[in-house]
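We were asked to recover a plausible sequence for a given structure. The inputs and outputs are reproduced exactly as logged, with field labels preserved.

PROBLEM: sequence recovery
POSITIONS: 66
GIVEN STRUCTURE:
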């Protein structure tokens, strides 16, 4: 692989990483906003917010609770 191509790919990694970080911050901000709202989660077919995150987004219950 030529240096120019390698540098371009490294630049793409940096850009993608920045977008991932921004998306993760937005996701966690929305989770934080929902956390204190006292939403009746049973209306969504789940027990609570961590259960919702687990079912809807495929994350482990352990991670959703953290």
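RECOVERED SEQUENCE:
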């Amino acid at each position: 692989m030529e240096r120019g191509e390698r540098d371009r790919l490294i630049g793409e990694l940096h850009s993608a990483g920045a977008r991932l970080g921004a998306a993760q911050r937005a996701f966690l901000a929305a989770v934080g906003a929902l956390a204190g709202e006292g939403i009746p989660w049973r209306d969504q077919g789940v027990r609570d917010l961590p259960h919702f995150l687990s079912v809807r987004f495929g994350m482990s219950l352990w991670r959703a609770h953290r």
